[in-house]
Amino acid sequence: MEIKTASALRRLRLVSAPEAISFLLLIVCSILKRTTDFNAVPVMGGLHGILFIIYVIFWLDAWSKTRWGVKTAALYFVLSVLPTGGFFAERMLRREAEASVIAARARKEGVVNA
Question: Residue 81 — very low, low, confident or very high, per pLDDT cuts 50/70/90?
Answer without folding.
Answer: very high
